[in-house]
Specification:
This is Esterase/lipase. By secondary structure, the protein is of the alpha/beta class. It is built from twelve helices and eight strands. It folds into two domains: 235 residues, Rossmann fold; 138 residues, no CATH class.
Length: 425
C-alpha cells in the first residue's frame, strides 16, 4: 500500500481537483467557501457567530489516485454550533505524502486569513495519516497553532512502517522457516502467504483463529510489536487477519508488506529491523525460541538517504518537541495504525522534556479511527479548555506496560459501543 516511490527530482503525477465536487451547503447559521488554492482543493465554513478561532482538518491516506478530494471536518456540527470556523484541504498530492499535507494545510491557513480574517487561535486536527501531518505541522510551524488533536494517528512515523515489516518477516520465518525482503508481489500473496498461514494454523484453514505453537508465537510477537499486552488484542488479531482485502480474505496485513519499502520523497527502503529484538512476551531475557527467531529472521537496513531529519525535504520525522497542548485518541485494537504509535510518540515527547503538554487516551475498539461522536467531541472540548483555561485533562499512560495490560485500560474514555471491542469489566 505504501510501496510507491515518488522521487523528488521526478515530475509529479498530474493530480487534479474536480471543482464541481467542491461546493457544499453551509449550515443554516454559517457561510461556506470553497475553491482551489496552491493546486489543492479546499473547503471552509464560518458560523455567523464566529468566536474568532479556527480548526484545521488533515484527512487520512487517499491511495495513489490522481483526483484530489476534500473532507468536511468530522466535528463540523459541534464546531459550527460552538462558534468555531473550520477549514480542510485536499493537499496537492495523494499517496503517503506528509510534506504535501503539511504545506497545503499551512497554505490554506494563509488563504483563510485572506478570505475571512486572521483567527485568534488555531487548532490543528487530523486522523490517521492526517495525525502524522498534524504532529509534523505543529513542530514545523511552532508559532502557528495553539492546540492539536491527532487521532488514530501515525505519530510514531517510521515505527509504523517497521511494524508492517515485522509482521511479515516474522510470519514468514515462523510459518515457513525462511524470510526475505523485498517480496515479489504476485508470488508473495499467491504462494508464500498461503504457505505461511498453513504453517501457523493448528489445522488446515484454521489460521488466524486456531493456532499451532508457531502461530501463537507470531500472534504474541505482533502484540508486543504493535504496542504491548493490552485489552482488545485477541479480537484485533482475529479481525485484522480475516477481513476482506484487495487480494482476498485475511491478507490485509500481508498486503502492507508488499513493495520495496520506499515512501514518497524518500526513494530507497525506508523500513528496517536491523536492530530489532523480537520477543513473544515483555520479559527482556530471550527464550531459546526467541533467540532462534532473532538469529535467523531476515534483517533489513534502511537506505542511507532515508530517515534523516531534513525538515520537509522528504518523509518528515516527528521529534516530540511540542510547544502547545496535544491530546490524542487511539483504538486499542487497531492493527492498521496500532497503539505502538502512541508509545513511540510519548517516548519522544518525554525525551524532549515536554510530557506536561501531552495527554493520550485509549478507546476500546478494534477498527481504525473508530470513535463515537461523544468520544471525539469530548476530546476536542477538553483540549479547548486546556488551551483556554490551562486545565489539563486526564489521560491514559501508554508508557506503563502494566497499566496498558490492565483489563480496565481504555475504559475511562470509551463512551459508547464499538464494533468487536471488548466490553469493560
Amino acid at each position: 500500500m505504501f510501496g510507491t516511490s515518488v522521487a523528488s527530482a521526478a515530475p509529479p503525477p498530474k493530480y487534479f481537483v474536480d471543482e464541481a465536487e467542491l461546493p457544499f451547503e453551509a449550515k443554516s447559521n454559517a457561510t461556506a467557501y470553497w475553491g482551489v488554492h496552491a493546486r489543492a482543493g479546499y473547503r471552509i465554513e464560518v458560523p455567523d457567530n464566529w468566536n474568532g478561532d479556527l480548526v484545521m482538518w488533515a484527512h487520512g491516506f487517499r491511495g495513489t489516485g490522481l483526483e484530489l478530494t476534500v473532507d468536511n471536518h468530522p466535528l463540523r456540527d459541534l464546531l459550527i454550533s460552538q462558534g468555531y470556523a473550520w477549514a480542510a484541504s485536499s493537499y496537492d498530492r495523494n499517496d503517503y505524502d506528509i510534506t504535501s499535507g503539511v504545506q497545503s494545510t499551512h497554505a490554506l491557513l494563509k488563504r483563510f486569513n485572506g478570505i475571512v480574517s486572521k483567527p485568534n487561535k488555531v487548532y490543528m486536527t487530523g486522523a490517521s495519516m492526517g495525525g502524522h501531518i498534524t504532529a509534523v505541522a505543529i513542530e514545523q510551524y511552532p508559532n502557528t497553532f495553539d492546540g492539536a488533536l491527532p487521532v488514530c494517528g501515525a505519530i510514531g512515523d517510521y515505527a509504523l512502517f517497521d511494524y508492517f515489516l515485522d509482521f511479515n518477516l516474522a510470519a514468514q520465518q515462523l510459518g515457513t522457516g525462511n524470510s526475505g525482503f523485498p517480496v515479489v508481489d504476485a508470488e508473495y500473496i499467491g504462494v508464500t502467504v498461503p504457505a505461511i498461514k498453513a504453517g501457523l494454523g493448528a489445522v488446515p484453514g484454521s489460521w488466524p483463529f486456531i493456532l499451532n505453537a508457531q502461530g501463537q508465537q507470531h500472534k504474541d510477537l505482533v502484540e508486543q510489536r504493535s504496542g504491548g499486552e493490552r485489552p482488545n488484542f485477541d479480537e484485533a488479531f482475529a479481525f485484522w487477519n480475516s477481513i476482506p482485502s484487495a487480494t482476498g480474505g485475511g491478507n490485509f496485513l500481508f498486503e502492507l508488506g508488499l513493495g520495496d519499502g520506499s515512501l514518497p520523497r524518500a526513494p530507497g527502503a525506508a523500513t528496517q529491523n536491523i536492530n530489532t529484538i523480537y520477543q513473544f512476551d515483555n520479559d527482556p531475557s530471550l527464550t531459546a525460541a526467541e533467540q532462534d527467531l532473532n538469529d535467523n529472521i531476515a534483517r533489513v537496513a534502511a537506505a542511507p538517504q532515508t530517515r534523516r531529519s531534513n525538515g520537509l525535504a522528504q518523509v518528515p520525522r516527528i521529534s516530540g518537541d511540542i510547544n502547545i497542548p496535544v491530546l490524542t485518541l487511539h483504538n486499542l485494537g487497531d492493527l492498521f495504525v496500532p497503539v505502538l504509535n502512541e508509545v513511540v510518540y510519548a517516548e519522544n515527547v518525554r525525551a524532549k522534556g515536554k510530557s506536561n503538554l501531552l495527554v493520550q487516551r485509549a478507546v476500546r475498539g478494534v477498527l481504525h479511527c473508530d470513535f463515537t461522536p461523544a468520544e471525539f467531541s469530548r476530546a476536542f472540548i477538553d483540549l479547548v479548555q486546556w488551551v483556554e483555561l490551562g486545565d489539563k485533562p486526564q489521560g491514559d499512560d501508554f508508557l506503563d506496560p502494566a497499566a496498558v495490560a490492565d483489563p480496565e485500560f481504555g475504559c475511562a474514555f470509551t463512551d459508547g459501543p464499538h464494533t468487536f471491542g471488548t466490553a469493560c469489566p
